[in-house]
Amino acid sequence: MHRFFVEPEAIARNTVTIIGPQARQMEEVLRLRPGDSIIVLDNSGWQYEVEIADLDEARATGTVKGKSLVTTEPQTKITVFQGLLKGERFEYVLQKGTELGVVGFVPVVCERCVVGQIREASSGKWQRWQRIVAEAAEQSERGKLPMLRPAVMFQQACENVRGFSVLAWEREQAVGLRNTLRHRLQQAPKGKKPGRLFSLNLFVGPEGGFTPEEVQRARGYGIVPVSLGPRILRADTATIVATTAIMYELGDLGD
Among the four 67, 125, 159, 191, which has the fewest Cβ within 10 Å? Predict the structure, then answer.
């Protein structure tokens, strides 16, 4: 069944009301009709099976037939701090990161970002980016929408980040991502069992990567620079590779 994220107020008791572009998509693109069933999500982690009662290009209404908890959200919550990239590359990170299970994206203005990329982050692109995230979450059967935060300067990102954080750097040779994760898993907080990592922040640079000065600054805030292997990856590729490797290592891609 087709899936749609809606605002919580769209669900009132056993009735769901969908208006605007989503209703038009249902009627004109997906060719849904009264009697068809869809899945509606309110970004709470619950999903609702809804039977369409009435539908036109402006409005759809339906009746809730069942409610269940979505079980596809990852155990480890990864937030990606992504150095700003050219439009299509940044959108690729948003789309594929959402499919993999990233819970949050923070665009970061780094020393090697260019003016055009910074302008995009403060322009009308925001609504487009949010739409890309929502469509990817629906396609991949997520239960919650990843949070897309406003762009921040690299210094500010380092200052405000909380929890375990790694930074992918192509010039790091001594410290690898896998060993860093395994070492962290062995360091359980007081009173908790080892072998579980609840959240992780992943920093990936823009085209050209982080400067040595930025890496040194990140170290000062406890962010661990790690290698993703001997080959140099594009910035957008690095984000997807690192996210996948983390998910696999922590068991979020299945046994």
Answer: 191
One-letter amino acid of 23: A
Q: Going residue by residue through the chain, which has 255 residues, state the pLDDT in tens, using 9 for 90 and above.
A: 899 999 999 999 899 999 999 999 999 999 999 999 999 999 999 999 999 999 998 999 999 999 999 999 999 999 999 999 987 999 999 999 999 999 999 999 999 988 766 676 666 688 899 999 999 999 999 999 999 999 999 999 999 999 999 999 999 989 999 999 998 988 766 656 566 788 999 999 999 999 999 999 999 999 999 999 999 999 999 999 999 999 999 989 877
CB distance 77 to 199 below 8 Å: yes
The Cα–Cα gap between 21 and 9 comes to 17
Question: Taking Cα atoms as reference points, which of 97, 239, 100 lies closest to residue 167?
Answer: 239
Phi, psi (rounded to 5 degrees) for 148: -105, 110
Torsion of CA 41, 43, 47, 51, to 10 degrees: -20
In the 8-state DSSP scheme, what is residue 90? H
